[in-house]
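During the no-cost extension, the postdoctoral fellow (Dr. R.K.) reprocessed legacy sequence entries with the updated structure-token encoder. One reprocessed record is reproduced below for audit purposes.
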Amino acid sequence: MEGQDTPWRHDDAETDRIVDRLSTEEQVGQLLVAPVAGTAVDASTADLFRQCHIGSAILFAANIATPAQTRALTARFQELCGRPDLGLPALIAVDQEGGRVQRLKPPATNFPSAMAVGATGSPDHARRWGLATARELRALGINLDFAPVLDINSNPANPVIGTRAYGERPDLVARMGLAALDGLRAGGVLATAKHFPGHGDTHVDSHLALPRIERSLEELRAVELAPFQAAIAAGIPAIMSAHIVFPALGEGGPELPATMSRAILTGLLRDELGFDGAIVSDAVRMQAIADRWGVVEGSVAFIAAGGDLVEPLADDRAVYAALLAAVHSGRIPRDQLRASVHRVVRLKRWVAAQGPADPAWLGAAEHRAWAAAIARDAVTLLRDDAGLLPLPASARLAVLDCVQTAVAGLAIAPPETSALADALRPRFPQARGVVIDGHAPTPADLAAARAAAEAADLVILGTRAAGRLPAQAAFANAVLVWGKPTVAVALAEPYDLAAYPAARTALATYGADPAMLAALADRLSDERRATSDE
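Re-encoded structure tokens follow.
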């Protein structure tokens, strides 16, 4: 039976009886969400889970290899973290947003980004994303998705949200987020709205440093908080906190990020907005917290501030011991601990009420069709003043693909071939790809691009984050002065196009996943599909 419509809240009296059967040590363990290294649970990690009574686990891409392996791993989590004697499964979480943040591998369906969904303007697409995502997660034994993102990407220079957001308007983000929530719930997976109170107006990546948002309280209420208020009214079961300082929401003392702020988690989210679901921390090992307070203190401060499920993602044993000590010392009052465990148990009881999962949903043809439909409706032709479209199939294309060579400050090896050129080649057999270092194009990159352009009829210029990377923007503008007919494509944030305004033919794809690139090839080759969004 798929996706029961029962509310995630269960009878409080029964939930209380379950909580009362847990010792203090077991209650503290219910607050922890722990990772593993690799694709299986080794003996030392199993000991950690047992000795700290850890009640929930999280998967990352490195933990997922094949469907059979992933099912075995989630089954092992259930053995270690579940309490069948109390009817409580383990919560097994993952960040499966679509676009550039999705942990599942083929044969799972690769969905376009939230911004692509938002660009379609269709809540039906958002709901189908949620339903398909829930089905495929459950097919692997996963029951908690850290999605949808309800941040409003109001700052084009935002280095961490971008296409993870549905868009720039509170009404659009709320409408799409609620449809996604409805789909996840129908598919039997718990949804998590993130990152409260909002991560969209930052200049800093909280993985690397501590951001601040200086908006006034009135601005926050009108913009950042609006989608979260809508989600709370719709019964969102969990909300994830942001590692961001909001001076307008602070308590008048030392400035603390939302994750550690009682004024924000309890005063605003609980008392004012009326949220009674589980508050989940973002990863505490992120440098915004770890560099200033440390993982242990950051984790304890989160629970003391009113949080319920903490993701230390480091030092788990020390965090458990510190949380237990905080309960014994009174820093975390016992009635507050009990209330947090109550909320976690309610989530687990909802998960337990869902019917059996169907492994056949993984990568189902229906889901792939939904992903393709989102991509088709999302690709946006912004202008074609040069009248280049549609392109003839016989065109010799020089595909200049500016690729990422660093993520969150870490260098990554560029691909050997251009994914953009590979995706265009079925429609345009004479597409020749040139991979360009998107962070710092070299003279050799420029020379190779120039040689390819001179041998081609047209240039396809694909950029990723040119709006935030001056060297990539300079490269794009250099290409445009060569005089060769050029189609510019923003392969990530559409804000790239403001960095090279001389482009007379320009499209946006909101991501470079396979479905989006295939849809782009269709748009370039078929005039009937290449309609303006105006």
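Residues 1-6, 527-534 have pLDDT under 50 and may be disordered. Residues 327 and 334 are 6 Å apart (CA to CA). The remaining legacy entries will be reprocessed before the final report is submitted.
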